[in-house]
Amino acid sequence: MASPLKRLLIGRPLKSSEAGEQKLGKLKALAVLSSDALSSIAYGTEQILIVLVTVSAAAMWYSLPIALCVLILLFALNLSYKQIIYSYPHGGGAYVVSRENLGKNAGLVAGGSLLVDYMLTVAVSVSSGADAIISAFPSLYPFVIPIAVVLVILVTVINLRGITESASILAVPVYLFVFSIIVLIFTGVFKLLMGIDATHEAAAVGTNVQGVTIFLLLRAFASGSASLTGIEAISNAIPLFKKPRAKNAAKTLAIMASLLGFFFLGITVLAVAYGTVPELKVTVLSQIAANVFGRNFMFYFIQATTALILVLAANTGFSAFPLLAFNLAKDKYMPRMYLAKGDRLGYSNGIVTLAIGSIVLIILFHGKTELLVPLYSVGVFIPFTLSQTGMIVKWWKERPTGWRKKLGANLLGAVISFTVLVVLFLTRIESVWPVFIFMPILIFVFHKTRHHYVKLGPQLRVDGVMDLPDFKGNAVIVAVSDTTKVVEGALKYAKSIGDTVIAVHVSVDKAQGKEVIDRWHSIHPEIRIAHLYSTYRSISEPLMKFIDTAKQKADQDNYSLTVLIPQFIPKKGWQNVLHNQTSLLIRTKLLMKKDVVVATYPYHLKE
């Protein structure tokens, strides 16, 4: 039943030779990799206003110079990541840049931050999408978490179908969103210039507002910089592009940065002009659309496309997380399962891990965007700062032609990114404190994982000296519950591989145990059976002690020891839950025992 369902949801398996077809051109790549950055306009301006209105609605005009500062940072990051794309065309982004130029630990901090940030990307995007749905239908407010979880599952299935197919699905809503925001900005600005619908109370630009401090403005700037999250995704995902990969990736980055800058500035101008104040159940973007168009078709069209892109913005995380996990796994800092490609030539294990992590975050933070965004911002500004600093070190060491200009761009980006990071830590410590807990734990896990793989290699490598025992024979212990066809087949197999065969039965009732032993002696008088009585009703514990004793005897006689577990297999998979799972527990415990071979004799039922 599972296999047809999998084929229906994910599609047919793709051959390895079809990998070349799973690459993206600029238009599809823009839809897949920039949806996170572009969608952030739905909450970027709102985050600035939330900080400013704590003083007064009159302070909202400060969002305009703050927006210009965000655009300067966007410009610096665009230049920097363009340089990273050409310098590191195989992908890896901030992780590879930091590792190569600042050292392994700096690389792990950048990589670990991005892994968590991509989970937060999915959580924030989907939660924002759920908020957009609720803005249009406020009665759904109590169901925000179930809605968000269902949306994560939907995006996960889309991504498991492969990068090309997911890009084809995503392209339509992304470009519809781009179209709707362009129409919104131009219509809103046109109405303002023509004096149409000029009845809204707006904050007077240039007014000196009591209570506005440098610290408050820095906090608002740091909050608004959340709009830039996702800009690094293209540098991580260069392998997804068609050739020439670096050139196509750089052009896609430039298009994304241009659209993001235009959208962010346009929405901020309209928010100030229409005097838009953040509300609990209605987003700032929704209020602007209502002011510009009223509650007509265009309002609902913008709400629908915004909800779609906010949900599908999670796709940036689904595209970049598996590739980053691949790079970390290649360097032995993550499990090797992240190196494997799935049926559709995508890194399915990374996709599923990301989905699980993001669902956990949505549940923990109750799907509240305002609680997730500070962590989200910290998670991306740590690698921003490290990658900029890494590029500064690179240019200083190599000093190629034009290195001063390149270093200057990276220096500007590094200083602004570090400033944002410090402000986030100082002003949002109540929200970002988990970073100080999970980051050291993550780095520790990375090092322990690599340490394991480094130690594993020499132990498995075949060299000139082989320190393996030369056994005289093989002793086989067959665990039996009663005299059945399953046991009969297992005994025949045990005789074929063993020089000595011993059956063992564990009973929790003495009378029933005696009946089993009596039947055994009448059917198999030639095979010795050990009868163990379990006082505390445990089947596995007496069996383990018996096997330990048998192992000592086998070692003395220079015999290998095999434990054979008979097991019948129901015709239908779901029927397994109806039967005793003792054999599974026994196998699990036996695998922990050194130099004991564990084997299963399967007997398949016909009905």
Strand content: 5-15%
- Kindly state the mean pLDDT as a whole number? 85
What helical percentage do the residues reach?
55-70%
Could you list the spans in which at least 5 consecutive residues all have pLDDT below 50? none
Element order: H for helix, E for strand: HHHHHHHHHHHHHHHHHHHHEHEHEHEHE
SS elements, strand count: 5
Sheet with the most strands, sense and barrel status: 5 strands, parallel
Number of helices, where a helix is a run of at least 4 consecutive DSSP H or I residues? 24
Shape: elongated
- Give the strand line-up of the largest sheet: 3-2-1-4-5
Structural class estimated from helices and strands: alpha/beta
Detailed description of the structure:
There is one protein chain. With 607 residues, the chain is α/β, with parallel strands linked by helices. The protein has 24 helices and 5 strands. A 5-stranded parallel beta sheet has the order 3-2-1-4-5, with helices on both faces. Helix 24 (582-591) links the parallel strand 4 (559-569) and strand 5. Helix 7 (104-136) packs across helix 20 (435-460). It starts with a helix and ends with a strand. The mean pLDDT is 85.
